[in-house]
C-alpha cells in the first residue's frame, strides 16, 4: 500500500493497550511484536486481526535472526507466514541481527559481523523470507556495545549496502544510530549523509540510558532530544512520507506522556519538512 | 569472513558465563578449541574485553526480563470488544468475539 503522508504511532504493548485504544485519534499506526502472537489462542489472533481493521498495523519480528550466515529455519518463516496471512498487516519487519548460533539462543539481538559475506547471506535469508511469507520484510539496524569481529565494513557502509539491496528497504532506528554513535565514537549525521534515505520504509525512535561511557538502548526511557534532531534531519533530506514508531518496552509513563513524545516526533518531522520547503 | 562457527562462538561467549570467564582469563586457549579459521581467531582475540563483558551482561538481563503473562491477550480482547461495543448500535451484534 502506498503511504502518501507522514504517520506517527506507537509500539503495541499489553500494558499500553487501553491507552492506545482510547487515543486512536492521535495514533496513526501501531506496531505489534509478532513473536508475542505465534503461540496465541485463536481468540487473541482474531482480536489482533480486528485491531488491524481499526488502525494500520505493522508486524515486527524479533526472533528470526536474519543477519546470519546460517539459513533461517523454514519452520520459523512458516510460522511468520501464518501470522501474516491471518492478521494481514500493512507490512512486517525484522532486524539486522543474529539471535542464535550452534543451537544456543542468545535471547536478544546480536550485532553481526559487517562484511560482504554477511550482507550476501542476509539478503539470501530475506529472499527466503519473502518467498515463504509472500511479503518482503523491512530490516532494522541494531544497537551494540561490541564492534563485531570480522567486520570489514563501517556501520555506515554496511547499512547503506543493505538499504540499497533490500526489496522492502530499511526500518531505520534512530536511537540505535544515536546509541552506536556514542558507543563507537562516530558522527551520526555523517552516517545519515551517506545513507540512502529513499530506502527508508519506517523509523523507530526510543530512549535509553547511560552505562558509564556507553549508551544502552533499553526502550525504558523517554526519547532524548538528539534523536528528535536526527528525525528532523532525516525529514529534511527526503520527500518520502515517513512512518515513525515510538518504542517503549517498560517503566511506562502516563499515556499522555507517550502521546506528547509522538507529538514531539510530529514537530521534528514538520521542522525538517519546513527546511525542504524553504530550500 | 564470517561463518556459522564464528556465530556459534560468539553466541557461547554471550550466554555461557563459564566460557566467557575462560576466554577472558586465557583467550588464546579458548579460541584455539573453537575450530575458527586463523583469521576469525585473530579477529576474536582483538575483541575489547570490557565491551564483551557489558554485552554478555546486557543479554543476560534481557533473557531474565523476558516474561509472557498467560492472560496477556485477555485484556486486549476485552478492550477491543468494549471499544467496538461502544461504537456499535445496540441492535447490531458486535463483529468481533
Layout of strands and helices, then pairs:
The complex is a heterodimer of chains A (279) and B (97).
Chain A: E1 7-12, H1 17-21, E2 29-33, H2 42-54, E3 57-60, H3 74-87, E4 91-95, E5 98-101, E6 104-110, H4 116-133, E7 138-140, H5 155-165, E8 170-173, H6 174-184, H7 188-194, E9 200-205, E10 209-211, E11 214-216, H8 225-237, E12 243-246, H9 255-278
Parallel strand pairs in A: 1-2, 1-12, 2-3, 3-4, 4-7, 7-8, 8-9, 9-12
Antiparallel strand pairs in A: 5-6, 10-11
Helix pairs in contact in A: 3-4, 5-7, 8-9
Chain B: H1 4-15, H2 17-25, H3 27-32, H4 38-45, H5 49-65, H6 72-87
Fill in the keyword field for this structure:
heterodimer; A: 279 residues; alpha/beta; TIM Barrel; two-stranded antiparallel ribbon; 42% helix; B: 97 residues; elongated
What do these coordinates show?
The complex is a heterodimer of chains A (279) and B (97). Chain A has helices at residues 17-21, 42-54, 74-87, 116-133, 155-165, 174-184, 188-194, 225-237, 255-278; strands at 7-12, 29-33, 57-60, 91-95, 98-101, 104-110, 138-140, 170-173, 200-205, 209-211, 214-216, 243-246. With 279 residues, chain A is of the alpha/beta class. Chain A has one domain (7-278): Alpha-Beta Barrel (TIM Barrel). In chain A, the strands form three sheets. Chain A has an eight-stranded parallel barrel, surrounded by four helices. Chain A has a two-stranded antiparallel sheet with strand order 5-6. In chain A, strands 10-11 form a two-stranded antiparallel sheet. In chain A, 48% of the residues are buried. The model of chain A has no long low-confidence stretch (mean pLDDT 96). With 97 residues, chain B is mainly alpha-helical. Chain B has one domain. Chain B is 70% helix and 0% strand. Chain B has helices at residues 4-15, 17-25, 27-32, 38-45, 49-65, 72-87. The longest helix of chain B is centred in the middle third of the chain and has 17 residues, at 49-65. The interface between A and B is large, with 46 and 46 residues.
Amino acid at each position: 500500500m502506498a503511504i502518501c503522508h507522514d504517520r506517527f504511532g506507537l509500539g503495541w504493548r499489553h500494558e499500553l493497550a487501553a491507552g492506545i485504544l482510547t487515543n486512536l485519534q492521535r495514533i496513526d499506526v501501531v506496531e505489534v511484536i509478532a513473536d508475542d502472537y505465534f503461540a496465541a489462542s485463536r481468540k487473541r489472533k482474531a482480536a489482533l486481526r480486528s485491531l488491524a481493521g481499526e488502525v494500520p498495523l505493522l508486524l515486527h519480528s524479533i526472533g528470526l535472526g536474519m543477519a546470519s550466515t546460517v539459513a533461517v529455519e523454514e519452520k520459523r518463516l512458516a510460522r511468520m507466514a501464518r501470522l501474516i496471512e491471518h492478521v494481514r498487516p500493512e507490512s512486517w519487519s525484522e532486524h539486522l541481527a543474529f539471535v542464535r548460533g550452534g543451537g544456543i539462543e542468545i535471547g536478544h539481538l546480536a550485532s553481526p559481523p559487517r562484511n560482504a559475506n554477511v550482507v550476501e547471506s542476509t539478503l539470501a535469508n530475506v529472499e527466503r523470507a519473502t518467498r515463504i511469507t509472500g511479503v518482503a520484510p523491512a530490516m532494522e539496524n541494531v544497537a551494540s556495545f561490541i564492534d563485531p569481529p570480522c567486520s570489514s565494513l563501517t556501520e555506515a557502509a554496511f547499512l547503506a549496502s543493505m538499504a540499497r539491496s533490500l526489496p522492502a528497504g530499511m526500518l531505520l532506528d534512530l536511537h540505535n544510530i544515536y546509541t552506536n554513535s556514542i558507543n563507537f565514537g562516530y558522527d551520526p549525521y555523517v552516517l545519515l549523509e551517506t545513507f540512502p534515505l529513499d530506502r527508508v520504509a519506517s523509523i523507530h525512535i526510543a530512549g535509553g540510558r547511560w552505562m558509564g561511557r556507553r549508551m544502552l538502548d533499553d526502550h525504558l526511557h523517554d526519547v532524548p532530544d538528539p534523536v528528535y534532531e536526527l528525525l528532523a534531519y532525516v525529514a529534511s533530506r527526503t520527500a518520502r512520507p515517513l512512518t515513525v514508531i515510538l518504542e517503549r518496552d517498560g517503566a511506562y509513563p502516563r499515556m499522555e506522556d507517550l502521546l506528547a513524545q509522538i507529538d514531539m516526533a510530529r514537530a521534528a518531522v514538520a521542522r525538517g519538512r519546513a527546511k525542504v520547503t524553504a530550500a | 569472513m564470517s561463518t556459522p562457527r564464528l556465530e556459534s562462538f560468539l553466541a557461547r561467549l554471550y550466554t555461557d558465563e563459564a566460557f566467557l570467564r575462560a576466554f577472558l582469563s586465557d583467550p588464546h586457549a579458548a579460541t584455539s578449541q573453537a575450530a575458527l579459521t586463523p583469521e576469525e581467531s585473530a579477529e576474536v582475540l582483538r575483541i575489547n574485553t570490557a565491551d564483551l563483558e557489558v554485552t554478555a551482561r546486557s543479554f543476560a538481563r534481557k533473557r531474565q526480563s523476558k516474561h509472557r503473562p498467560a492472560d496477556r491477550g485477555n485484556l486486549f480482547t476485552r478492550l477491543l470488544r468494549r471499544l467496538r461495543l461502544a461504537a456499535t448500535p445496540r441492535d447490531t451484534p458486535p463483529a468481533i468475539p
